[in-house]
Amino acid sequence: MKIGFIGLGNMGAPMAKNLAAGGHEVAGFDVTGTYPDGVRASGSAVEAAQNADVVITMLPEGDILRKVAGEVIPAMKPGAVLLDCSTVDVASARAVAGDAIQTGIQPLDAPVSGGVGGASAGTLTFMVGGPQDAFDIAKPLFDIMGQKAVHCGPSGNGQAAKICNNMILGVTMIATCEAFALADKLGLSRQAMFDVVSTSSGYSWTMNAYCPAPGVGPQSPADNGYVPGFAAELMLKDLRLSQHAADTADADTPMGAAATELYRSFVEDEEGRGRDFSAMLPRFENRGRS
Ligand code: NAD
Questions:
Q1: What is the pLDDT along the chain (290 residues), one digit of tens a residue?
Q2: Which among 169, 181, 143, 147 is positioned nearest to 87, based on CA atoms?
Q3: 33 Cα: distance to centroid of ligand 1 (angstroms)
Q4: Measured from the CA of 68, which atom of ligand 1 is nearest?
Q5: How confident is the model at residue 159, as a pLDDT?
Q6: Could you list the active site residues?
Q7: Dist CA 280 CA 283 (whole Å)
Q8: Most buried in the list 47, 58, 175, 270, measured by CB within 10 Å?
Q9: Centroid of ligand 1 to alpha carbon of 220 (angstroms)
Q10: Which atom of ligand 1 is nearest to the CA of 230?
């Protein structure tokens, strides 16, 4: 397929590289002007999008997506697919999809989980919203860039799935970290805590697969000085998106709101920026009740 790829940062560059290595013709554009192997440099987003069967965007946030989509949609060929893999607010995803459909373009919102490691290895999971026909066209590309693509329903539902998942992730990481810090103060060893909880009703992905305590459980960023992994500021971005969506939908999410405020203070006031989101554990370790 002819692919236009816009936004070649930490995630987009390896995704585009994998598509080119998979035999697709990839024209890329990024404002930084750097391009991965196999990707032809374009002078603008519009140039990358012209004549493409699928235009992929991997951008920082919703306002930038709206701006880029406003430029490329009129330049795309009729029937082409606009596949946004960025994590953005549900409202932006649905607004872009509406504009695309009006112009005869097929929209998909397909945020990912798996991080930079998954993007490089081609093992991302895609959560996809949009028409079935567009999903079928994009499926071979999902198969190169990832290991799984779940069609979640109409436009915006991919973003809805992503932020609901990551709201659970933020809340459970905090719960796991505060429980470890309490266990420390009660004289329970971290190994004993892991051995019990990982096989009891308190188990979770954050305990069993991404344990925030160094030297305990499987290898995780905790074993590497809390170098991300998944940075705390990205967790904060996704939690804020969840609360924005909850406001819009009038949903009561007290745990999501508390997690958002904790990650906000960690990132903005407590030097958490640039650390893995599991570095909540040393944060709790160093605090008392007041
Ligand atoms: P990044 O900042 O490394 O990459 C974004 C790229 O977009 C940058 O290279 C930037 O120059 C480019 N860009 C910005 N404005 C542009 C424009 N107008 N035209 C063309 N290019 C433009 O971010 P990333 O880590 O690659 O993340 C991309 C998206 O994926 C985000 O929405 C993020 O939330 C999501 N995500 C990231 C991770 C992760 O672990 N990094 C995991 C899952 C999802």
A1: 999 999 999 999 999 999 999 999 999 999 999 999 999 999 999 999 999 999 999 999 999 999 999 999 999 999 999 999 999 999 999 999 999 999 999 999 999 999 888 999 999 999 999 999 999 999 999 999 999 999 999 999 999 999 999 999 999 999 999 999 999 999 999 999 999 999 999 999 999 999 999 999 999 999 999 999 899 999 999 999 999 999 999 999 999 999 999 999 999 999 999 999 999 999 999 899 98
A2: 169
A3: 14
A4: 18
A5: 98
A6: 162
A7: 5
A8: 58
A9: 23
A10: 40
- Which tokens go with 10? 């930490």
